[in-house]
Amino acid sequence: xxxxxxxxxxxxxxxxxxxxxxxxxxxxxxxxxxxxxxxxxxxxxxxxxxxxxxxxxxxxxxxxxxxxxxxxxxxxxxxxxxxxxxxxxxxxxxxxxxxxxxxxxxxxxxxxxxxxxxxxxxxxxxxxxxxxxxxxxxxxxxxxxxxxxxxxxxxxxxxxxxxxxxxxxxxxxxxxxxxxxxxxxxxxxxxxxxxxxxxxxxxxxxxxxxxxxxxxxxxxxxxxxxxxxxxxxxxxxxxxxxxxxxxxxxxxxxxxxxxxxxxxxxxxxxxxxxxxxxxxxxxxxxxxxxxxxxxxxxxxxxxxxxxxxxxxxxxxxxxxxxxxxxxxxxxxxxxxxxxxxxxxxxxxxxxxxxxxxxxxxxxxxxxxxxxxxxxxxxxxxxxxxxxxxxxxxxxxxxxxxxxxxxxxxxxxxxxxxxxxxxxxxxxxxxxxxxxxxxxxxxxxxxxxxxxxxxxxxxxxxxxxxxxxxxxxxxxxxxxxxxxxxxxxxxxxxxxx
Length: 496
Prior knowledge:
34% of the residues lie in helices and 20% in strands.
């Protein structure tokens, strides 16, 4: 059955209208796309989550899920789960029963990195993320025991919900694992929706190159931080922590890692040959113990005056490097989609939380450059953090005449956490490139209470003659927000 309208001399095919509803859970991502062409309507839900330990998170996400059901009448044509972080998936976990009982979901789209039935993917997941997550758990417990600061690292841990993708996979009739399928001019994989042949969804990332997946930060010359290292700096730290956890906690090693493997890794991670050092246990028990007790104290007889000389627990502070690496690695598995609307070929870019390696895998290609030139809508990555939007060759290549950006950030929450979201340099460049057409999810003044029910703040007319007043009024007129006490959403509608 064809759903297309045939043009005649007296008729024109119906225009496509796209409404992008950004829900306001707090610091999290939840986007509902409504595609309408004549009598036809399709719904795409991209993520549904909020940062763990957000006050009232379960209740607010329930209101959001119920609003999604109301708008869609329980029919989702596509559910997109971009990557395995709580601020993108926790709604599906909290309200699994609601999704199972109240929704009909045709397809669930995920990246190829989520296909754990693939032996290569399963091994990569275990090696790069599962072991690192276990290591982070052990390290935080040890920091607690030693009275060391661990709260900042636990905040990073709050993004992780390894295993939540398994819940998402239950929700749809058909699961699809999408890969970019490289071609001579760039990624070639394209998805379509029945009845919407004039809409093409390009799968741009994540790449199959693991080196790209591990590259979280752009070079310093691109106005960002960069470690510039070919070897992950957290490897030796992870090895030491795993050894510590094996000795002091469960006595179990991660799946696929043997005790002999661990001993070999420990030897390789030491800064000098084992024969030239002495273990902490030996230092406490051998004939020279009086020397160590006198000058360094011991666990059994701590001497606060000597404590400054001891470094045996200082290495635990390296958990920060490993935690950031883990967060970055999972962000780089983000499924990146570019929605192209014909005949104008306008592009809506949803890059989830992709970081530098993910972006560069497609922006350097001819097709990637062409897509960026035609991008008129950008969902800003990772709540506007400093390393989740490629600037040169990314944002600065998007269409400045029409670009609209949506930032799923709760600025009050970010300030309370002391996170630079949005990052100042990104905010400045977004302001210029989009000519002020920036829709911020929850914008609160500094020092105010963190409350996602704060009414939506309509963007202010930008200074500096960036845009005409007529164009600005067109932009403002395309924005609607929930005026109920719950203030659940803000949406933007564009006509192709």
